[in-house]
Fold these 4 entries.
Entry 1:
Amino acid sequence: MFRNTKLNYGLIAIACHWLSAVVVIGLFAVGVWMVELTYYSPWYKTAPHWHKSVGILLLGVTLFRLVWRLVNPKPASEPNHQTWEKVSAQIAHGAIYLLLLVIMAAGILISTAEGRGIMVFDWFELPGLTPLIENQADIAGDIHQYAAYSLIALVLLHALGALKHHFIDKDSTLLKMIKFNRG
């Protein structure tokens, strides 16, 4: 029920997948919105604090997901999947994880560019880093932005691929990420 099998994803993988999907889309939307805030907006300090806090928690979930993938079997592809689909899926999944890590690392570099730590919902503080390069916040900000737009584009392709498998190919690819193995 909790672990993956050779046929289905388990509850842990499914919950982490959908939690990450909702959080990534939410963080992207908030990120696009908050860069337009003015100093006099009541959200000027609150929105970035929440964005950073949720982003740090997502980093923890993402690192957990990567470890979970290593210690759990991956369900087999459907027999009707073409080689190009399998290779594309592997590349897309790898790129999604890479972009997530790049975005989060860049976000940390933006927030700690002046040596301050990142307070996560008043629960704990991620220690600040000594600035690594000149104009660190600006360079990391550009990387954060472009990687986020790239991630959203890839997430859309990922979703379209899942919908193609479900509605056109009529296979169980999408269902594997919706229904967990009850053992």
Entry 2:
Amino acid sequence: MKKTRLWLLAGLICTVAGSAWADGLESLEAFVKTVKSGRAEFTQTVTAPPREGQPGRAKTSTGTFEFHRPGKFKFDYRKPFAQSIVADGKTLWLYDADLNQVTQRTQAQALGSTPAALIASAADLRALQADFALEAAPERDGLQWVKATPKNKDGQLQSVMVGFQGDALAALEILDSFGQRSVLKFSKVEVNPALPASTFEFKAPAGADVLKQ
């Protein structure tokens, strides 16, 4: 379950006035064009689908997120478990500290229709539209929203809602094909910080098992 949650680390519908529908897409376009790097803290809540009449269980984790467009990003989970997801532009690395295990995948094969592609990988809106159907959604919780639906129906991702406060990324709401919902809320967001190249370098810890997929 941990690994499934990580991979899902790396979008809804009602009628509103036309001006509101434009806001989310405009924010996404401005974000992709102008925000080339970023740093933030995040809180992620994953809720499993309800079973046998019982409500779905929710699990919360926290950590930090950094990215440099196109194609480099890093999620560091700190609580309750130490885990990392690092994309260096060629390879996607997943590290589970409890298991001392690293999973290595080719980045191009792993990222196409994922939330990470929406916020860190694409160079422009046209690149996103190659993998996602994008549509603006109603304003909610003081944020402008875009729904992104993968064009590839064979993946694990059903949809992603991307929330912006102005042009700043504020939230992701991810629904997978199993009905699991993951909500990430970003805080202390820094726009276009100078991030050293070493931020996105990954070296397997001594003694770790490395699995290539």
Entry 3:
Amino acid sequence: MSLEFVEYPAKAKHQATIIWLHGLGDSGDGFLPVAPQLSLPDDLGVRFVFPHAPVQPVTINGGMEMRSWYDIKSMDLDKRADETGVRESAAQVEALISHEIEKGIPADKIILAGFSQGGVVSLHLAPRLEQKLAGVMALSTYMCVPEKLTAEAKHTDLTVFMAHGSQDQVVPYGAGRHAFDILSAHNMDVSWQEYPMGHQVCGEELAAIRQWLIARLS
């Protein structure tokens, strides 16, 4: 089943795509307002795609059904990301990327972005893709099965933008730094930004994202 999504169309000829994955309990609509806020130059021809995660029961929330990229059975970081669920969602997102490539958008003009759970899927998928993407944006997030990255990665020269709140009570700051250290140890081009905030995105962060996106897609 293909993922449903909302989109923010390119202002000029479509030349690049940003696929942005939301966090637990949110939907693609949650990040849709960010697209106009970033006010990327029209001539970059950027189309934003905001997929909706499937609705499924989430163990830590008493089995309540909500949009989720994978089940969370425990808040312990080494067990938090359900590997099977992450891989299933990654395969669905990969289908979206393939669709963009079929439409004529080259992989080096595609950015995969994700917040929290969405960032876990993005960091998992991008190094394992056949094609090398223009970059990955991992916001307030952590890694699933980092110990398997060495064996499974097809690209270790990815460019990654990471940002995290120093007061994040949902995904601890240390979890983000651990992901940064793992990616850096694989010689990826990883930049780290931190902000005095909780589990959210702030204006200063959006300004940094804008600069990074323009650099990656120009």
Entry 4:
Amino acid sequence: MNKNIIAVAVGALGFVIGLGLFGNAIKNRNKSENTISVTGLGTKQFTSDLITWSGSFSKNNYDLKSAYDELALDRKVINDYLLSKGIKQSEIVFSSVDIQKQFRSYNDSNGNYVQGEFSGYNLSQKVSIESKEVAKIENLSRNITEIINRGIEFTSSSPNYFYTKLATVKQEMIASATKDAKERAEKIAQNSGSSLGNLKKATMGVIQITAPNSNEDYSYGGTFNTSSKEKEASITIKLEYEVD
């Protein structure tokens, strides 16, 4: 008899606890659904303050030493030219010399590729400049034909542009995006007759840097444009608020 009473009492207690847990689950579910998720955007335009530029030059000769000596002469001409344009020696970097053997190649009567006899050495070298004098290096890259006119086989690449204060820009954009997201959330809550509660979650997107007014695609890992001196950066912030 006593065992039956105890069993009934335990079962009743379990039922009451179960109702309580179920009630809390419903309450928490409704509370989690009563939220607002918004995304804010922060943007900023700025001008690059660092530029890099490079070019390459080469020499061909059957004799390796002669090719190297000729390349060294061209290197001096290029170095002196850059110095004459106001470039600091500390900003000029020459790479190591790349040496390639060349062979005359042809296709035989069956169309098979045949590597023929040795035709000499090709030696090439790269010169690079990194400077905060953006306008000066831009002008240099546009007028590099002056080097070619001195009889040097020189190939110039396009400049790349960077910004050294990107960390500050990022902080400003995060603040702007957060403000934008909060204002959107407040407007939504106001229009629905509610008010914002506590911030539950904040998620930051990746920074995207493109040329202004361009149609460049955003990348999942972030875009970083280096071909444009003028840049526009953007970042998104997603905020999730409770609604009272």
